[in-house]
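May I ask for an example protein's residues together with how it folds?

___
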Amino acid sequence: MDRNRVLELALESLNRKRAGIDEEIETLQNELEGTGTAIREMTSPVTRRGRKRTAAERKAQAQRMREYWAEKRALAAKPAAAVKKPFPASAKVRTMTAAHKKALSLKMKQVWKKRRAAAGKKAK
């Protein structure tokens, strides 16, 4: 390469660097004057994803939530007797007598005795 070509390439490189530096200077001057956005972009919070809701959508959501919480409060305010019971009032609650417990215990002892005997035969 001849000397002139080398000088032209060096001049182009320096001009590109100067353009970049000029842009940075302009950005900083705008920030100092309050017209730039570079610093605001760096310090701004993370942006939301997705679309933003309109005022009507927010209003409708607020109304739905008011109704939801009003219903919750109404259910909580009802006396315990008004809350649905798992069994109807007419259902008879049976209690086990001592004789019935004894009979059931003897029956289960026989069942387990037979199972142990069957397991013992299989093991041999």
Remarks:
- The radius of gyration is 43 Å.
- The chain has a mean pLDDT of 82.
